[in-house]
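Aim 2, interim progress. The first record below pairs a target sequence with its structure tokens.
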Amino acid sequence: MRIDLHLHTNASDGQHTPSELIDIVRKHRLDIIAVTDHDTTAGIAQAQAASAGYPQVIPGIELSAEDEQGDVHVLGYLIDPNNAAFQGELQRFRSERLSRGQRIVEKLSGLNMPITWERVSEIAGDASIGRPHIARALVEAGYVGSVREAFDRFLYNGGPAYVARYRLSPEEAIQFIHGAGGAAVLAHPGLLPDYRAMVERLIPAGLDGVEVYHPENNQTVRLNLKGLAQQYDLVVTGGSDFHGEAIKANLQPGVTNPPPECVHALRERAARYKG
């Protein structure tokens, strides 16, 4: 069984529509996937409708939390997309992202790199506007050569064009996911300066799992995370973090494959939080 529990669509910052994503994952012969867009569930129903049961589409989300270590993302699995309180919080996040994006564009103009808000909105389409869309506008305008360069030079946390966002703590992210009936998993821990400390910090908050199998986790990180998962009874998950070829080149769905038993384990965890 082939599984990928970390995939993005253009409902957030991915390249492809939900139906296009389904076509792609079918070509890679994936059996179970999770749509985990940033701070939105808008792509889930479309992906499930397009799949018609194959592949199986698990409802998910990636919440963009932040603390002293920087960005600390938390994946939610088997959430109820129709949970009213959860959707209310997501709407607040999107409003904050909109205001933040406009201020970033203003900063870039002050740095003699004017781009229009209208063009950023066109690039984002129906998605919630974020830094990746602004980065793509900078590439299009010729100010940088790639999305990565845009982040490395201007948009990184604390960078010349950076604007601080509403700070959702990792603990709050876990609380929101549990409130929507989902299991909470620490995303791509290998990107954190001290993933061990973060895992141990989030255990009292009810962390359910860790994303061991991720392209940014090297073999040493994976071994360490497996040890932490065993020590704290956490579900071992994984996924490609696929955004699309134009956004993350040479990265395809299914490039990492978590153990098949993780899906059942996530269902058992999520069952604890169903109302």
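The second target in this work package is listed in the same format:
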Amino acid sequence: MAIYIVFDVETPNRANDRMSAIGISVIKDNAIIKKYYSLVDPETHFDWFNTKLTGIDSQMVKGAPNFPKLWKKLELIMDRGVLVAHNAAFDMGVLKGCLDAYDIKWKPTVEYLCTVRIGRHALPGMKHNLDVLCDHYGIALEHHHAGSDSHACAEILLRYIQSGVDVDKFIKKYKLVP
């Protein structure tokens, strides 16, 4: 049985190559067994739009670890399974951007799942925004809070698995090294 590392990131600006927060929910044996959340000092500027959306500003991340410091902990978690995100192209791109920005070598490729992609198969004909799916399944959500978003995405993945969807057939590889 696979271990799924469901994660969500918030970003400080439109460049989307740094994170200001990360949330992780680990699924093993069809249950959420661990949750992790941290603010991240992106060591760059915040756009007004991102601050309005996430509620995170430069003052909030003062004293938070930067990505290289946090990566020592994140790598131990993310190495353990298949990465999962809602609209995974965004979160995977931010992760790659952070690794590149700090010249951190991890793996050439990583396996991942996108719950939007799975949802289009499992629930055709409906919108697959995170908040819409949370309403559909009755999942609590504090939208654009990385901890809440990762937990909600994990709950959605579990709903798909419980309904009989073979989510592993949706696993793709993300290229981290050019």
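The chain has a mean pLDDT of 97. This observation will shape the mutagenesis plan for the next reporting period.
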